[in-house]
Design brief:
With 286 residues, this protein is an alpha+beta fold. The protein is built from 15 helices and five strands. Helix content is 55%, strand content 13%. Strands 3-4-2-1-5 form a five-stranded mixed β-sheet, with helices on both faces. The termini are far apart.
């Protein structure tokens, strides 16, 4: 295992709130025989009061066909990863994204222009459940690909300080996806824990694979925003109450007052496809 893998593994093994660990175990139990690992990530990682918050998990499975009783769900997850679902346990609420071990490794790598996974896992996360040591090692190895992918895609700038490289890299990834957050959000990711990013800088830079592509952000933006809309439309079918969650998140981050109408709950796919262009035009999401 490389030095960077060891650094990532140590961070992933940092203890979490017992209720988070219990929730991860309960989530894995919903997928007997296919669950491989559960990772906890996002802004709730820094919170001590979890009640009323939406926790974020990634569930890693062996294979989509083994994970779902319905074939269309497996096909949707394979064609447009990940599938996203709501989950509740012990008074806490969460959403979780499902990826296979193969897709999790691939989407953390520099070979993909899709930023959604490696941008998230270049940030702190926790491996809160694994079925065995092999699954744990594979999850660590996949996450260890994320930060080098992020920094490689942004590319170095001569004379730029390491923290500014991270800040610029996250700003680029935020420009690729549909976002309700303010433009300063990407900067605050680094500023919330600068010591961590300083500690990760040299090992992550050393771990950038030879020939890793950089640049291409105009193409990434075009593809990323289109893919975000497609994922949102898919989530309106797979995620119970997804249209309400979308409104809640946008209201929270953009200061809007979107109210979902009864017809939008009955036809969430149509609602999502009509709501997003209006929000982009008004600047609520970018």
């Amino acid at each position: 295992m490389s030095d960077f893998n060891e650094l990532v593994g140590a961070e992933l093994s940092t203890p979490v709130d017992p209720r988070v660990a219990s929730m991860a175990k309960a989530l894995a139990a919903e997928f007997p025989g296919s669950a491989r690992a559960v990772l906890f990530y996002g802004s709730c990682l820094r919170e001590t009061q979890l009640d009323g918050l939406m926790l974020d998990f990634y569930l890693i499975v062996s294979d989509y066909s083994d994970a779902y009783p319905k074939r269309w769900q497996a096909v949707a997850n394979r064609l447009i990863p990940p599938n996203v679902f709501p989950f509740q346990h012990d008074g806490l609420i969460a959403k979780y994204a499902v990826l296979s071990e193969g897709d999790f490794d691939r989407l953390n790598g520099a070979e993909t222009r899709n930023v959604s996974v490696w941008a998230r896992f270049a940030q702190p996360s926790r491996l809160v459940w694994a079925v065995d040591d092999t699954a744990r090692s594979r999850a660590v190895a996949a996450v260890a690909r994320a930060a080098p992918s992020l920094l490689a895609a942004a590319g170095p700038v001569q004379g730029e300080a390491p923290l500014d490289w991270w800040r610029r890299a996250f700003s680029l990834t935020y420009s690729v996806e549909l976002r309700a957050e303010r433009t300063s959000r990407a900067q605050s990711v680094v500023d919330a824990d600068p010591d961590r990013y300083l500690r990760f800088s040299a090992p992550a830079i050393a771990a950038i694979p030879a020939g890793a592509p950089s640049g291409g952000w105009a193409r990434r933006r075009a593809e990323g925003k289109a893919l975000s809309i497609v994922r949102l439309a898919k989530a309106s079918l797979t995620y119970a109450g997804g249209i309400d969650y979308l409104a809640w998140k946008i209201n929270r981050h953009a200061g809007t007052k979107i109210e979902i109408k009864p017809w939008q709950r009955r036809w969430p796919l149509l609602a999502a496809l009509t709501l997003v262009p209006r929000l982009m035009k008004n600047g609520a999401i970018r």
